[in-house]
Give the backbone structure.
Amino acid sequence: MKSDCKDCGRPDPAAKPPPIRVGVEGFEGTLFSEAQPMRPPIHPDRLAGLPAFEMFAAERGASARHIARDPAIVGEFVRWHAEKGLWPLETPWGELKRGA
């Protein structure tokens, strides 16, 4: 705590206040699960160039570049990728799964 100088009455610059302590409590996060792959930041042009996504778009008769810009299609693509089962060692984003 700051105390006044006995001689002049001004605050003593050498006196320091008690430290402020900050902590975090009650956080419960969820771990990454291969069953529910999280969508990493991916540019639509990169997504459209993935072979799996190109097949996904072709089965729908759509342009991969066009539908890659639609955020609502991503969940459908993830489900399709898992059901298709053609890339068992890859995530929908073209990366190797852990332990593969």
Q: What stands out?
A: Residues 24 and 42 are 31 Å apart (CA to CA).
